[in-house]
TrEMBL record:
Domain Zinc-ribbon per the UniProt entry, residue ranges: 23-110
Lineage, broadest ranks: Eukaryota, Viridiplantae, Streptophyta, Embryophyta, Tracheophyta
The protein's name in its UniProt record: Zinc-ribbon 15 domain-containing protein
Pfam family, one: Zn_ribbon_15
Native source species: Olea europaea subsp. europaea
InterPro entries, A to Z: Double_zinc_ribbon, Zinc_ribbon_15
Length: 113
């Protein structure tokens, strides 16, 4: 006899606090600042819910939750790009160093881009 457990823990957006507050670190889509809750599911049925500790950014395109400090600022309404910002530059989300866009991992800290 064996026991097969089907369930898990997931995060769900509870309330949107600010729409378009940042950009997704994975896909670049607009991300909303949300209050979220953690949900324990057993056989795909929610069993227990509890609120998250602080608001997070949530991308509705790829369903990713991440802290606000990791997100680049949302695109500005003006079409001008400052001279110091390079179009081909990519920054690591963990060490904030400039990385070549062809890399999949940061050569400085080793995190996935």
């Amino acid at each position: 006899m064996f026991f097969f457990f089907v369930g898990g823990l997931e995060q769900q957006a509870r309330q949107v606090l600010k729409s378009g507050a940042g950009r997704c670190i994975a896909c670049g889509s607009p991300a909303d600042l949300v209050d979220y809750e953690k949900v324990l599911k057993l056989f795909f049925v929610p069993v227990w819910r509890w609120p998250g500790k602080q608001p997070l950014l949530h991308c509705s395109n790829c369903e990713l939750f991440f802290p606000e400090s990791f997100s680049p600022p949302p695109p500005s309404s003006s079409t001008e790009i400052p001279v110091e910002v390079k179009r081909d530059a990519l920054r690591c989300q963990f060490c904030a160093r400039e990385v070549d866009p062809g890399f999949r991992f940061c050569p400085f800290c080793g995190s996935a881009l």
